[in-house]
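Hey, resending since the last one bounced:
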Amino acid sequence: MSNNPVVASIYRYTFCLMSLLIIMSTAASAEDDAFSQWLADLRIEAAEKGISETTLDSALTGLSPIERVIELDRHQPEFKLDFWTYQGKVVSSWRIRRGRELLDKHRSLLEKVSKQYGVPPRFLVAFWGIETNFGKTLGSFPVINSLVTLAYDPRRSSFFRRELLNALKIVDEGHIKAGDMMGSWAGAMGQVQFMPSTFVRYSMDADGDGRKDIWQTLPDIMESASNFLAQSGWQRGVTWGREVRLPSGFDSSLAGLETVKPLAQWQALGVRKIEGGNLPAVNMKASLVLPAKQESPAFLVYTNYRVIMRWNRSHYYAVAVGHLADRLIGMGPLKSKRPVKKAD
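The structure tokens again:
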């Protein structure tokens, strides 16, 4: 080594850098080997479940974990929107206007599906609008590669491995090509954003062409959504819920889906329609929901609200679906006023 201290320092830095690069290269090579072995084991399992070699070659060749998918899974942003901001974004004037246009345009199809499954057209259009902006936003991630990434990652590997095997089954049955199966980073896909397991259980071939196409074929899309809701317990002739007015000093501990009472009991507790009138004198049970916690608004919700939550376990979401469905048939905005924030 040179006696020149500058040259010696450069030499040591170069040596350390090269050592680090070698270590990193070795680690990357080991990780590549581990992933390749994992993928080989997956192929064996998929083949044992009846997935063809042709499908496995088309779907699993040339894949590697997608770093962005892991980032999104690890750092999903906390739900920072308050109830009113969320409703304003989801039940927007554009979505109401466009939803009404599509409700009218596809009325024949929607009424046919509704007659068969019992889900009113306005709810089908509301789901369609909230999930993908009526088919405009289907997701930009390759579903197979995203699911491979999440199945290989240890955090929720069992869940996503099952979803991945279902996705391979969908491709193998010829419903869509692997390269065309695009969706969300977590694997939700199509105009109704079904996970692969939901697709396998509930999707329908409404037009009889041999493919269950929830990406482009509207009859398949609407019948698949209706089948899911019907099999989840949707009740014909019943709405989702209603905005209500609570009396002063109401016991908020009664709020929540775990508490179910007949409407007559809620009436006796002082709960009224949002305009102030009596609740309907019908033999129905309901739960009280306060999606903004202790603040207004308040809703009495029925069985179909619980079915909506099978789609997405969020009160914000369930209220938005119900409210958008109401707005599509001319009902007005929520009557409760957004609370005024107190100055610091």
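The two ends are 66 Å apart (CA to CA).

Sorry for the duplicate.
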